[in-house]
Specification:
Elements (H helix, E strand, L loop, with lengths): L1 H8 L8 H8 L12 H20 L6 H12 L3 E2 H8 L3 H13 L3 E6 L2 E9 L1 H21 L5 H18 L1
Helix pairs in contact: 3-7, 4-6, 4-7, 5-6
């Protein structure tokens, strides 16, 4: 991961790690009740993953939300904005700014749905499909690097467990 390589290249010690804090305070901060909680560990991993994800997609200037919206639109051309909001689990009002950004960058276009002027279907442009393909390849490389300590079997198990939890909770 770029984060690890850049930390190693700097002269400053990495004080964000548990090992660095052990030396400062004399206790292993990983040895506590928080470390035994699934939610706490998921949150900590999510924060690290999100930081690395932002770095990975910086070249394409895509946030996680914009990438997700583009992904669903490319894979489901003609999806309505309401259906896209439901698919992503965000409020429709919050989606408007994301779609505006995608449209301003000429990655998607809104098309009125015949018979209902209130509904707009989203269609990826050629530039949107190209940007998505490039970004998806970047995300795959990012995940390979981020989860390099996990075996392919463990990765499959983790993904299956996370999907099961998500589908049950949604």
């Amino acid at each position: 991961m770029a984060r690890t390589a850049s930390n190693a290249a700097t002269a400053e010690p990495d004080t964000s790690s548990a090992a660095a804090l052990v030396g400062e305070v004399g206790v292993d901060v990983g040895d506590n009740s928080l470390d035994q909680l699934i939610g706490y560990n998921l949150k900590r991993v999510y924060i690290l993953l999100q930081m690395d994800f932002r770095e990975a997609l910086a070249a394409d200037d895509l946030s996680a939300r914009v990438f997700s919206a583009l992904s669903v639109t490319v894979e489901h051309p003609g999806i309505s904005q309401s259906d896209l909001a439901r698919q992503l689990g965000i409020e429709r009002s919050g989606l408007v700014a994301i779609v505006d950004q995608l449209e301003q960058r000429h990655l998607v276009q809104r098309v009125a749905v015949p018979g209902d002027r209130r509904v707009q279907a989203l269609h990826p442009t050629d530039a949107g499909r190209e940007t998505y393909a490039r970004a998806l390849a970047t995300v795959h490389r990012h995940e390979e690097a981020f989860f390099d300590m996990v075996t392919p079997q463990e990765r499959d198990q983790l993904l299956a467990i996370l999907r099961k939890i998500r589908r049950t909770a949604e």
